[in-house]
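User: For my dataset I need records formatted as: sequence, then structure tokens, nothing else. Please produce one.
Assistant:
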Amino acid sequence: MATVILVRHGRTTANATGLLAGRTVGVGLDETGRDQAAVTGDRLAAVPVVGVVSSPLERCQQTARFILDRQTGTPHAPIDPDLTECDYGQWQGRLLSDLATEPLWPVVQSQPSAVTFPGGESMAAMQARSVAAIRRHDAAFEAEFGPGAVWVAVSHGDIIKSVLADAYGMHLDLFQRISVGPASVSIVQYGSSRPSVHATNTDAGDLSWLAKGTVSGDAPVGGGAGPTATRTSSA
């Protein structure tokens, strides 16, 4: 089966100031975010990806560009609105410290499946459209490039957390237990019987083993030997 690498955008000016940017136009990576995205691009340079699908928001497209610029080939680079940020409605543009005093805040923390943001989107709808988009692209890349295809989806924290929760078989109400940092890499493979989560929220480490593809099938009892990374010797 194909393998998707889920990448959150790098840090933004809004992240740094504790602002909930949501779908606000023009929120780009700050200097730290550009450095983070560059590191992620370097990590993925050893993996020949067939596509880099991005949320339409600027911060994701900037992060995707760091990945694309470090690829030796020319991956497909579509924009998908279904990977865009949650519509936080009237919460958008407000400080997280202020939002934490709202009656809805503890519900977001403990029962997100019951949350619809005022004037915005429900978290259940957010998960449904983002998971559907990931699975749709995954099937399309596999159909075009074969079961060893590896592709990248660049999106947002809550989007990626909801996709990972689905892959883990977790109820959406548990998705706040998952952390997804700026420019982090998570890896999922959708097998014929169930998804396999190979990594979550990583910001360092060799990813060259992905160039050989991942093996789908039954889970090895005891955990197995794991992937073998390509190693280079130093003089």
